[in-house]
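SEQUENCE-TO-STRUCTURE ENTRY
===========================

Subject: a protein chain together with a token-level encoding of how that chain folds.

Sequence line: the amino acid chain in single-letter code, read from start to end.

Question of interest: how does this chain fold, as expressed in backbone structure tokens?
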Amino acid sequence: MARTKEFDPDAALQSALELFWRRGYEATSMSDLVEHLGIGRASLYATFGSKHELYLKAMDRYTGTRDPLLLAELSQPGPALPAVRAVVRRFAAEAASSEGRLNGCFVTNTAAELAPHDPAAARRVESSWGHLETLLHSALLRARAQGELPGDRDPRALARMLLVLLQGVRVVGKASDDPARVRDAAEQALALLD
């Protein structure tokens, strides 16, 4: 007779995500996960597979909770440019916050730590960035169609510039103790939308 799980896999995955987010992949050992999650090593492997598989599942959870929020923000009816501005300013504020400095962005952290040598992680990073770029591009196309964005502006190029800015904001916000650096960069980028 099979034993029932003595833990909530969903809660365990969330807890693993938080530990990986705070410490990174390499700095988190299986022993750390066993201790942090309060789950036996065998149960952890049986439920989530390897440490790498657990990390990828944690990354999927992270993007699965954040991507719908961005979709809602950037696809709301009415003027599109205020939504784009709000997203850029929110990213900058989060990056400059004490939590942003502590954890950064899980996707950006993964891009820096794993993507150069881990194809599965790199695919997830690229998917997340592609999704954000598409959302920004769609919003900027709407803004141009509604007369909010000058007709000579390239929505695709602007979306790519904002994507790169937002990822850079996350990196600089994590490493810098000067929140004005992040805010000023975001405002200068937003001035290009005028």
Remarks:
- The mean pLDDT is 92.
- The CA atoms of residues 57 and 183 lie 32 Å apart.
